[in-house]
Design a protein that fits this description.
heterodimer; A: mainly alpha; 6 helices; globular; B: alpha+beta; about 30% strand
Chain lengths: ~160, ~260
């Protein structure tokens, strides 16, 4: 039952990502809801569930992006593994720590996506690169508590 | 800080190696996933449109009034243009110009947008069942929108012209100067490979060139808003503002060749 709801959570967040309302876009940027969900899964579920559903979230994102290479699936899997290792080393119960983690993960994830685009020969002006890197990451961090609550409700209810 | 046992490391490499290989077969899942998402995306889109209509009632009312005035002015202009068009047709006949065959268009609604900020694409509610195939050109009454990159049974993905992966061979309408227009993810496009002596000024209209194999000749792309010199110093570039409001586009037309 929990797994079904986690799956529905991914569909809900993927849909929200696809139809994100224009008034909520800041400087043409929108938050990465599926990335928050993946990080939240590491905090609220066991490693296997978090890793599996984290990668599923990455796959859901990749399916609606142009290009045939599943970079988000790989990155989400990698972050899931790294965060699980990190949570064994340090305490991640403090909300501030969790927000700091999500900010770092969002920054690194956006940096990888941006560098991948640039290395493919695309012209992205520095201003737009920094906009996508910083504003998207900060916006993702700001919305993280809401997705954390949703994930907590799903995981604790079942 | 992190001590990785050898077994874990090997497992990690094997799993990510397999994932890396599997990720190249992503396209196998795309059709079914987009098919699953289509009904509720359409429904949510409909609800969103209705709600926005109610919330922004006053703004819409003012906008409608302004547009009505604009429509009246344009109607008069249309009469003038019709005269010119008829004259043009007559002259064409006189010069024995070949009439271009009319374009076959399929109208589609935008039902979703790219879920991240590193690409610029939209999902439309028409697909293979409507004769849409990858490579087809997408336009709107204002100008060029992009091209189809993937088509499922009843949805398609459109790569917009402001995506960095998009390249459109274009010319300056006034001077016929050629260049390559590509996206920057921002509000403006960039027209590159312009020689030092290129005849281009701010305000020039950019249209698709006949050299483009994908886009029909003469489609409106945008208007030049700024000029600059490339980092190498060898060429100049022009910033082009697309004529289509790509951030707010809701309906598009797909050209069926």
């Amino acid at each position: 039952m929990k797994k079904l709801f986690l799956f529905l959570g991914i569909i809900f967040l993927a849909t929200l990502g696809l139809i994100w309302p224009k008034p909520l876009r800041f400087f043409y940027c929108q938050p990465d809801l599926l990335l928050i969900f993946m990080v939240a899964l590491v905090f609220y579920t066991d490693f296997k569930t978090a890793w599996l559903f984290g990668m599923l979230a990455g796959l859901a994102k990749d399916l609606f992006l142009p290009g045939n290479f599943a970079i988000n699936t790989i990155c989400f899997g990698l972050w899931g593994y790294a965060l699980d290792r990190l949570s064994r080393q340090i305490s991640t119960d403090e909300p501030a720590v969790r927000l700091a983690i999500i900010l770092v993960v969002a920054l690194l994830n956006n940096l990888i996506l941006g560098l991948q685009s640039v290395s493919a020969g695309n012209v992205i002006p520095a201003g737009i690169f920094l906009r996508n890197l910083i504003i998207v990451s900060v916006y993702t961090t700001v919305l993280a508590p809401l997705i954390f609550k949703l994930t907590k409700k799903i995981t604790l209810a079942f | 800080m992190f001590k990785l046992p050898r077994k874990t490391l090997i497992n990690f490499i094997v799993i990510f190696g397999s994932l890396f290989l599997l990720s190249n077969f992503l396209s196998c899942f795309k059709n079914s996933a987009q098919k699953t998402f289509k009904p509720h995306l359409s429904l949510v889109g409909l609800l969103k449109r209705e709600l926005t209509g109610i919330i922004f009632y006053h703004r819409n009312m003012m906008q409608a009034e302004r547009l009505r005035n604009e429509a009246d002015a344009l109607r008069w202009r249309l009469f003038d243009l019709r005269e010119i068009s008829q004259e043009n047709a007559r002259l064409n006949n006189l010069l024995n110009f070949k009439q271009r065959s009319p374009l076959r268009l399929v109208a589609a609604k935008v039902i979703g947008r790219s879920p991240d900020s590193w690409s610029s694409s939209v999902l439309i509610d028409r697909g293979r069942e409507n004769g849409i195939k990858p490579g087809m050109v997408v336009v709107s009454p204002q100008g060029l929108v992009g091209s189809i990159i993937e088509s499922a049974d009843n949805t398609s993905k459109v790569l917009l012209i402001n995506d960095p992966n998009q390249g459109v061979s274009s010319i300056v309408q006034r001077s016929r100067q050629e260049g390559l227009v590509s996206g920057t993810l921002g509000t403006n496009l960039i027209m590159r490979y312009l020689p030092e002596e290129a005849q281009i000024v701010v305000g020039d209209i950019i249209v698709t060139s006949e050299l483009s194999r994908v886009y029909p000749k003469g489609l409106l792309v945008g208007r030049v808003v700024n000029l600059g010199r490339e980092f190498s110093g060898l060429n100049r570039y022009a910033l082009v503002k697309p004529l289509v409001d790509l951030a707010n586009i809701e309906e598009v037309l797909v050209i069926i060749p």
